[in-house]
Amino acid sequence: MNFASKSVPRHLVRGVIGFGLIIGSIALVPVAGPVTLLAAPLGLIAFRGCPTCWMVGLAQTISRGRLERQCVDGVCTLTKADPAGKAADGRAADITVPVTHSQAADNTVPVTRR
Predict the structure, then answer these.
(1) Given this model, what pLDDT does residue 91 score?
(2) In what order do the strands lie in the sheet with 75-80?
């Protein structure tokens, strides 16, 4: 699943809004009463469901376009995306990532492309 945003600043703004609403709603309970807790669900909307999903999305947004995943015969490799088509030393660093056969067969493995 993709949790990334269009840009890092946009993602950070969503985080500031989400954390601000949740923290503010809890901090303002002694001043304005329990009604302020109604702002907390709005913070979850800014996070698209949960703060953990927001953190995963931040990592995805930062790494977008820097890594490419290619799957062949149920084995996926991560390589550094290189606009010129080659790494500086003439080869790309591959990392093998195990994938189940069902993921490779029905194309549920996400691929990052520029």
Answers:
(1) 46
(2) 67-72, 75-80, 95-98
